[in-house]
Design a protein that fits this description.
6-stranded mixed beta sheet, 899 residues
Length: 899
Amino acid sequence: MDDLLREFLTESAEHLDTVDAELVRFEQDPNNQTILRNIFRLVHTIKGTCGFLGLPRLEALAHAAETLMGQFRDGMPVTGPAVSLILVTLDRLKAILGDLEATGSEPAGSDDDLIGALEEMASAPIAPTAPAPVAEITLPDPVMRELKPGEVSLEDLERAFMEAEGPDPFDASVASAPEPVAAAPEPVREAPAPMPVKAAEAPAKAADAPAASDGEGGIAKVQTIRVNVDTLEHLMTMVSELVLTRNQLLEIARRHDDSTYKVPLQRLSHVTAELQEGVMKTRMQPIGNAWQKLPRVVRDLSSELGKQIELVMSGAETELDRQVLEVIKDPLTHMVRNSADHGIESAADRKASGKPLRGTIRLSAYHEGGTITIEIADDGKGLDLAAIRRKAVERKVASQAEVERMTDAQVAKFIFHPGFSTAAAITSVSGRGVGMDVVKTNIELIGGVIDINTQLGRGTTFTIKIPLTLAIIAALIVKAGEQRFAVPQVAVLELVRVDKATAQKVERINGSPVLRLRERLLPIVTLTGVLGQDQAADAVDSGFVVVAQVGRQRFGILVDEVFHTEEIVVKPMSSKLRHLPLFAGNTILGDGAVVLIVDPNGIAQQVSQGSQTGAIPVEAEVEEVEAADAKATLLVFKGGAGSYKAVPLSLVTRLEEIESAKVEWVGGRPLIQYRGRLMPLVPADPSIEIRTSGTQALVVFSDGERAMGLVVDEIVDIVEERLDVEISADRSDLIGSAVLRGRATEIINIAHFLPLAYDDWARGPKKTVKRSSTLLLVDDSAFFREMLSPVLKAAGYSVVTAASADEAVAALLSNGRIDVVVCDLEMPGRSGFDLVGAMRKVEGRVAGLPVIGLSGTIGTEAIERARTLGIADLVAKFDRSGLISALAELDVASLAVAA
């Protein structure tokens, strides 16, 4: 196959995928000429290239489809059968292209059936449309007034302008430029006079900088190039080897005190990290590439099932590794098909339930830590958990006693068992119980997890968390027995030191080890135990517990030692070991040792099996079913005069103990070099002095590329308790005081300290006003949500949070208790303005809810737009008192009572 044909196949496949998706859009918006022109252009390009390459069968099909679309352009009404016929034609074109790629020549065959149908539909007479009546526009009489001294009338001004001489004579070669304008029919009278001046200026500028023009033209022409995937894979392999070599050098540096080569080694490490990031970007693709076919799938299913279904997609620009993208394409398609068939009810059933006739499937993707989160949600009937329980007992997947002990979340996961289906009848779409088990297997194959949240009559949400890449991951290196292992850091929540002599000790229930961590029982497994190795009876009583979480299941892995975190290159398991579910692969450490990578999904599966058989108590499995605001996890530390202070742990990035000698002073401000950047240090209390010797404890906060070190006296503990601020503070650095573990503890306001580290971050004063009402806080940044929630709760509000405009709309429609909305106006994708616009279009209570907008910069345009949408007030993001005052002015409490 020559390069020209290969290029044609690649481009045609891309064009057909685009036309496929655009046609579905065009059917929903038939008056959108931009979409039609794009479709027409792409099909015309395919037809023209086929004629050039001598592919008559493809050319004839494309020509017939183009003819029908030309009729659309000429005014023919867009109907469902016409769009379906073109889509079938596209499928035939793809099949022919597939054979052409496989054999190198166009396959023989006849397409007269499709061509005849297309021509028949295109030849149907177009019903003439009556021209719309043109309203006669009557201009009001001009407003007349007497002229003031020194003024002239408009007629005198126009006469003076027409009688004035033209511009000075100039070169004829320059004057040749405006000739086409002069030749245009019915030229405007005023145009010829100024035009020559502009024409003269343009060549002068072009003559001054011809090179710049050429340079710009060159850049515009060459912006992307096609690179063979094998080339990128080889480049990724070489970068992986470079990372391994870098790790080996760093290991050598740890064991030697010679500092002569540490500076170039540090530089090598930075360059390697940047190179790795650059190569990773070449492999990244928007997840929208995997979604491209889904609108067509939903459209076809709507017709086949006789349902009205709308697919809403958000976050299509979210990028992930090409290899991961290929693996999740089929699972996503299957889950959307399942939602359409099993989830969305028929129009009659929805009407009887008081729902809109059109069902909605929402597909969203967003970055969360080092993972991609994908949500597939429908507003259908939800999973029938009672039917699933009965089916599980019938199929002997679990006994009646086991099913009765299980939580709803555990029961819902039965749908992932092979052959499990509660469908009353088998259809061409689903019902055989084949598919969801494959979905779960494929997702876990790439180190992902899938979780289910369902409400009967309200709908079901599937949440998938998958790694950004499969090539290089951050891992925690641990030791169990005589072997070292790597635990993927994305699954690690925290590390806990356990010992008989300390407060944290291992207890036993039914002979199984558990850890009582912040009033919760955490099931524990030992790596040596799951591997079947012998271990001493007292070995379980001491060591380190790696607290991990998979989906909503939390458990502990007991290890003997914890070394450090390291970026590791994932190598596939040997074929002889792939049947072991406990390991996801292996890697080579810096010292050359080969270690196995623990698969958190495999460990979680063992814990679940143990809980079902009764070896591990079922109540020990942590199910996150408590209300979101029931308890808060707080970091407690000492700061100033021995007082206890606390901050929400979700805001904290890291806890550090640094050598005091590393603190530098620049312009009177303390700084440290932290991870290749300068990080400002801010004392948590005015009475704290940065130590000049020994070690200094720091709490590190970060948002994006910015980081701040909060200087504290001592890290005390992490506690999980209900945050009930009893005394509000009049100081801007405190939210208030609360009782934590029997001690009076000050809850600090992190918004006070951030502007002390970065001057361009505005901060606000103090004072809180308590109200009793429900508030929806919408912000795409988890950092800002976690920072503002305690402030609002301390002010007496019940807070519901949403990470996007789509989540906010869903919360507003499902929660009738929300009295006011506070939203970030500058969110990516659908902004806060878009959210408010959508709210105002909804019928009923939601349209009239008061909204307060948060913004980093409040300009004239934002104020005008806010006024148009009826936004009650605009507040700077860090202006705590401004936000509370704005809420107080709304008098939300009375609104809540009135509602």
